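Good morning,

Attaching, inline, the backbone tokens for the sequence recovery test we're adding to the shared suite. The designed sequence is right after.
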């Protein structure tokens, strides 16, 4: 049986991802501005932030459903590990995208995005591996 720490970590990551998704859908410039600056206020920036919000909402809700072992998402710690792992992959790509455009992004925002995406990728990877391998067992 997978340990409580891995399940709690999965819930925390999934809840945060879900919240970011909801905020991005409701107020795209709020989420987009730190990443892309004033471009977040343009239609294209709003579209991009909402699309990323939809991605995060889906990944977060899928992980929450899997952790709660709802049939829709799978009924094992491994299913939750896959959902959390896919979120970590998305965060890794966000970090890579930020790094490749580093000099053209807002100075403070790029650090915020890099730190949050990198931290979420690292934490998500650790939690996913624990769920997938059973290393989070108590």
């Amino acid at each position: 049986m997978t340990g409580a720490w891995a399940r709690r970590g999965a819930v925390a990551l999934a809840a945060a991802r879900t919240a970011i998704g909801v905020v991005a859908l409701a107020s795209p410039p709020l989420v987009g501005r730190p990443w892309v600056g004033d471009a977040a206020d343009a239609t294209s920036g709003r579209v991009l932030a909402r699309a990323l919000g939809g991605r995060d909402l889906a990944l977060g809700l899928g992980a929450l459903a899997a952790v709660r072992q709802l049939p829709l998402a799978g009924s094992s710690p491994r299913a939750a590990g896959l959902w959390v792992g896919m979120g970590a992959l998305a965060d890794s790509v966000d970090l890579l995208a930020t790094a490749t455009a580093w000099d053209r992004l807002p100075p403070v925002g790029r650090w915020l995005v890099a730190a949050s995406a990198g931290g979420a990728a690292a934490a998500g990877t650790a939690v996913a591996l624990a769920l997938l391998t059973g290393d989070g067992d108590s």
